[in-house]
Structures are given as C-alpha cells and as structure tokens.
Write a structure and sequence with these properties.
- There is one protein chain.
- The chain is mainly alpha-helical.
- It is built from six helices and no strands.
- The protein has helices at 3-30, 33-57, 63-86, 92-111, 117-122, 127-136.
- The chain is flat and about 50 Å long.
- The relative contact order is 0.11.
- This is Multidrug efflux SMR transporter.
Length: 137
C-alpha cells in the first residue's frame, strides 16, 4: 500500500471519528449520571483519535487540502446525520450551501495541484526563511 493511500485511510478515520464525536454531542447534552460520564469518555476518545489521525494524514497530504476535505466532509456528514437522527430539515439555502461545499471538496481534490511537485516549485519562499535572511544581514 502506498504512503499516499495510507494517508487517505487516516483521513477517512479523521472524518469518521470527528463526525461521530460531533453527532454524539447532542446525546451528551441531554444525558445524566453515568450515561453522561460514559459519553464524555467516548467523546474524548473520538476527538483524540481524530487529531492523532489528522497528524498522520498530513504527512503526505497537504494540510490545506486535508483540512478542507475534513471540515467540508464533516459538515456534510453531520448535517446528514442531523436529518436522519434528529429530525432536522434543511431549507433551500442549506441545501445549496451543502452542494457548494461538496463541489469545493471535489474540485480541490481532483483539480488542485496543491502539494504536487509543480506547485512547490512555483511557490514563493516561506516567509520565515526570508525573515531569517533579513535578520542575518
């Protein structure tokens, strides 16, 4: 399995753990006693899994692309879960917004050269590197 494929599998775990945790927040808010404590432990485990997995995913996926994919997909999944489990009904504006988010994710992943060798060659020097040169002079 290639390094890139492994990173995308980590991204899948990022999305699954974060959307599971976010969807559990509503149950956590409505629970009491030992159930609330168990949900708290679950939430902490899911968010820790999410951020650990994100740190692994960005080893071979540009951080901007990873974050856009994670947050955009998270919005779509959590909105869908809200409709399925909490009776939330999106209006026309919400549906249009979700379509724009979905198309943005697809466009960035299919057509962006972010992170490719070509885009790295054309990129300007890092601001920190140029600051170091100015300080040295």
């Amino acid at each position: 399995m290639s390094s890139k494929t492994k990173c995308w599998l980590w991204m899948l775990l990022v999305i699954l753990s974060e959307t599971s945790a976010t969807s559990t927040l509503k149950m956590f808010g409505n629970s009491e006693g030992s159930t609330k404590m168990l949900l708290l432990v679950l939430l902490i485990a899911l968010y820790c899994t999410c951020y650990y997995s994100l740190s692994r995913a960005v080893k071979d996926i540009p951080v901007g692309l990873a974050y856009a994919t994670w947050s955009g997909t998270g919005i779509l999944v959590v909105s869908t879960l809200g409709m399925a489990f909490y009776g939330q009904h999106p209006d026309t504006a919400a549906i249009i917004g979700m379509a724009v988010i979905a198309s943005g994710i697809v466009i960035m992943n299919l057509f962006s050269k972010m992170g490719s060798e070509a885009s790295e060659e054309d990129a300007p020097a890092a601001p920190v590197a140029s600051m170091d040169k100015n300080i040295a002079n």
